[in-house]
Specification:
Pfam families: Alginate_exp (PF13372). The chain is about 5% helix and about 50% strand. By secondary structure, the chain is mainly β.
Length: about 450
């Protein structure tokens, strides 16, 4: 297939890279977080891509260009999509995502970053979904103007199209698992002061179309607020995130109705690790208006674990426990359903079936680092709905099942196995299997087939 030919060429090009070379900074999920100006004085082993990773434009090297890109090939097969409600793909779906970016620094205070993305798909029954295909468009295109506050701290004004993620992506995430990553248009102010990084933003999401350079700003939605991340000295071995996020959607959709939605989220996240233990705890409260009614919603999420560093395969055992409010009565004007805004698509598993609204779940998991390059992760997910008069939602907020006449809470049981192999710094492979068995609520409200999901992914970055 056309995707496979391109991937094979990319992997062959990458293979000669010396995996034993002196360690370099890791490749980042957001490529604009990489800064290759370190190559001005780098004395380690060369990389074949160094000539395009750092191109000086003046004698001092303060102005420079950098180029990079990636290609990801993915095969997915889902047996009984959405418990049998969605059409069955005959032979699975082939997905390809290719990116090419350029990074221009002009002196110390001005920067331009641009990135093109192409997402293609084949095999989806009924045609590609909105997150499957976007033939060619601009993924990132922003300018930074930086102002030093003092010798340590700075302020950067960023304007244009840009990807976002806050914390671990529970409320705002780039949606890496999908073939089409999420991005926004707008303005941000990035402030470094003392032990804090502040992010002030006013943005709108991109409205994805599947053609060539036909995306546009989604005028139905807007996101604004401030996100602060720091390491207060009073919290030993812990980081603290504090945030306010405002959100408006002209077409907010819930079991209750489709109405104008204005929502304000106030939250905090505590994360860290010490003596083998690690923790990631987050809580948020939401208020605002939905049509003529008021919003009062909340969530609490946790991921705690212990890693046996001195044991064979360095196992980590952990437990995620999460809860989010649901609507108590769809017949009145008030709305209690939590809105995760722009969350990870794979919030509970790579199958991306269930979303974090009106639910509570327990998610034990066990991870192994078999070798430096190979990791194996396993988990189970037990998922309930919280309020019986509210339904079950997808990660994107679509209503999977309304409450119907069912009094059952239990929605589904999921088990997943994920293997990741990264033989080279810029090449990795992933294999995932997820089985999702319907619970009483699904069985009582419609199709109730078990979902089986298989994913095979190869990725090359430079």
């Amino acid at each position: 297939m056309r995707q496979s030919v391109i991937t094979a060429a990319a992997l062959l090009l990458a293979w000669p890279i010396n995996a034993a070379a002196e360690p370099r900074p890791e490749l980042q999920k957001f490529r604009f977080h990489e800064d290759y100006r370190f190559l001005r004085t780098f004395s380690g082993a060369p990389d074949p891509f160094d000539p395009i990773k750092y191109v000086p434009l003046d004698d001092s090297g303060s102005s420079s260009l950098s180029f990079g890109g990636s290609i990801r090939e993915r095969y997915e097969y889902t047996g009984n999509p959405l418990f049998g409600d969605d059409p069955q793909d005959e032979d699975g779906v082939w997905l390809q995502r290719a990116n090419l970016h350029g990074d221009l620094y002009i002196g110390r205070n001005l920067r331009f970053f641009g990135e093109f993305s192409s997402a293609l798909s084949e095999g989806r029954a009924g045609g590609p979904s909105p997150v499957d295909e976007n033939e060619l468009d601009v993924q990132n295109a922003f300018a930074d103007i930086s102002f030093p506050v003092d010798r340590v701290n700075s302020f950067t004004l960023r304007a244009g199209r840009q990807e976002l993620q806050f914390g671990t992506g529970r409320l705002v995430d780039v949606r890496e698992g999908a073939n089409v990553r999420r991005t926004f248009d707008g303005v941000r102010g990035l402030v470094e002061v003392a032990n804090w990084d502040l992010d002030l933003l006013a943005v709108r999401p991109r409205r994805d179309e599947n053609g060539i350079f036909d995306d546009r700003t989604n005028r139905d939605e807007v996101l604004w607020g401030v996100y602060a991340a720091g390491e207060p000295q009073l919290l030993a071995a812990s980081g603290l995130d504090l945030y306010y996020l405002g959100f408006r959607d002209d077409r907010g959709s819930f079991v209750q109705a489709v109405e104008d939605e204005t929502r304000h989220s106030i939250g905090a996240r505590l994360s860290g690790n010490r003596q083998g233990w690690d923790w990631n705890l987050e809580a948020a409260y939401q208020f605002g208006t939905f049509g003529d009614g008021d919003i009062a919603a909340w969530t609490a999420a946790s991921d705690t674990g212990f890693k046996f560093d001195e044991t064979l395969f360095q196992p980590r055992i952990g437990l995620r426990a999460n809860i989010a409010s649901g609507d108590e009565d769809p017949a009145d004007d008030e709305l209690q359903t939590f809105n995760p805004l722009y969350p990870r698509g794979n919030y509970f598993s790579q199958a991306a079936v269930l979303g974090p609204r009106n639910f509570f779940n327990l998610n034990p998991h066990l991870n192994f680092q078999i070798t430096e390059e190979f990791a194996l992760n396993t988990d189970a997910n037990f998922y309930w709905r919280l309020e019986k008069k509210d339904g079950v939602y997808s990660p994107s907020g679509q209503i999977i099942r309304g409450p119907g006449q069912s009094d059952a809470r239990y929605v589904a049981t999921g088990v997943s196995v994920e293997a990741t192999w990264a033989p080279l710094r810029n090449v990795d492979f992933t294999a995932i299997y997820t089985h999702l068995a319907p619970g009483a609520f699904i069985e009582e409200t419609g199709a109730s087939e078990s979902v089986d999901f298989i994913e095979l992914t190869a990725r090359f970055r430079f």
